[in-house]
Amino acid sequence: MGLCTLDVVRVVNIFKRYGTEGKTLCMVGRQNINIEWKYFLKIVNEFEFEIDKSILDKIRDTTPIDTYLFFKMFGLSEVHAVDYTMGDGADIIFNLNDEIPDDVKHRFDYVLNGGTLEHVYDVALAMKNISLMVKENGVVIQISPLLNQIEHGFYSFSPAFFSDFYRLNGFEVICLNAELRMDESQDVRNIYYTEDLRLFEVYENGQEWFQKQKQLRKYLSRLANVKDFLDGYIWCIAKLRNIKDIEYPIQRIYEKIEEIEDTP
Predict the structure, then answer these.
(1) Least CB-packed of 107, 111, 152, 176 within 10 Å?
(2) Average pLDDT, stretch 5-10?
(3) How do beta strands 134-147 and 231-240 pair?
(4) 71-77: long-range contacts (C-beta < 8 A, 24 or more apart)?
(5) pTM for the model
(6) pLDDT digit string, tens, across residues 188-247
């Protein structure tokens, strides 16, 4: 569970977009922050991020970085971490394989999973729990493995896993990217899948569906020729627009195929 400079910049951009004053964050598993301060502070200046310099003075050039203070540096009022044990420094203890406690439901403005979901065996319940942690109009940030991470965790994920779940459960998907990491640096990635490549969003008949399939197969064929990449990640950012009972989706592709088959 760790965030590199690129990850942190994206997270802080979300803070900048939706605000931090009086707001709360919960990490799903206490995150490690892996940055080089001189580069990170240069980015902070370029992006005009507002930071609490008194906190910066406490944690700058320290190892490991105090994650709670790090996020509070950007103006959050509370920062928490949930885990099944206190061993990694979490302050809220429950197992994502179990039903979420009532006192954690809809408690946080931001919920950040930077690499925990794939390690939870009951992944469907874990997704439900993570979604129930966020307040109405709060934001969930998920970073999960896509490919080439055998034995890293129990699972790797498809973009549809996040997109179809969140759209069914009252969330707006703000960002959905899948990326390749091209070398050992955690900060070097190439995006190869973005939300505009999603299938089944706009079409009127089966013929258009097959055309989209053909285009995507061509795209993936080109991707197969990419050499020397290490692994891939999915970034999903979703905002809870209305609280509702959590449901498990049928994959959207099969819903759409059924609609085509039922069309006279």
Answers:
(1) 152
(2) 89
(3) antiparallel
(4) 71/25, 74/12, 74/15, 74/20, 74/49, 74/50, 75/15, 75/20, 75/21, 75/50, 76/15, 76/20, 76/23, 76/24, 76/25, 76/110, 77/20, 77/21, 77/22, 77/23, 77/24
(5) 0.86
(6) 666 665 654 444 344 445 555 566 666 666 666 666 666 666 777 889 999 999 999 999
